[in-house]
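Q: What would this chain look like folded?
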Amino acid sequence: MRYHILHRTQYAYAAPVRESRNELHLQPLSNQQQTVDSFLLKVLPSTRLKHYYDFYSNCVHYFELLEPHAALTVESSFRVTTQKMSSLPPDARPIMISRIKEALTEGRCYDFIQASRYVDNSPEVWRLAVDAVGDERDVWQQALRLMAFVHSHLAYQSNSTKVHTHTREVLAQRRGVCQDFAHVMLSLCRSMQIPALYVSGYLATEKASATHAWIEVFIPGHGWQPLDPTHNLQPDETYIKIAVGRDYADVAPISGTYKGTTERNMNVTVKIERIDA
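A: My prediction, written as structure tokens:
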């Protein structure tokens, strides 16, 4: 499938601000599942854009606006071609949990079994995970059970949390958005020592055309396998990956600082258009 995606973020400040410094995770990854055909990034007021690749191989753009400005617009526009994913079937039983430590010898899995800024792996979370998997001993089957548990345990409710909400708060109120579903599942997986990372991107379906978050678990011998706890399914070619990390803090679309008023309005527009072959 081919898509054209426009992601525009506009800030309007109550008074001019200055010394704005920002990092952006807006350029999609190119891998076996997707190919970036074109990418354009604009910032207004105009400024020089630079980029680097972070520890997790994400492309990170950054810029600074030193002069006073009353508004800021960041807009990414790109075309991407996605392929059908080659994922483990839901009835696969590839490896027992007793062998999960084999994962720590591959890649950067060690980073993804630790707690992180928004992800908890406390004894209370471990207890939830143990109860959710029951007597299942296969790693992949455990991950599927944890996904089903998160999907049924949490209620999806728009605007019920903020981008900085921790998993402890989400579990306490049992509601959230896709980011929270992903963070809770990361907590459960990591408490069981199953390596799990956070994925930011877009979901392009007839019912949804928006930014989205899901996770990937590492299955030794089969690599990283995507799972979407918000919808309780395995992602397909309608998912477009932007960046990966330990949690949202590593992949926020826009993050930064500035000097000036804290009163501001932010407006985010996402448009996803499928391009016929």
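The two ends are 8 Å apart (CA to CA).
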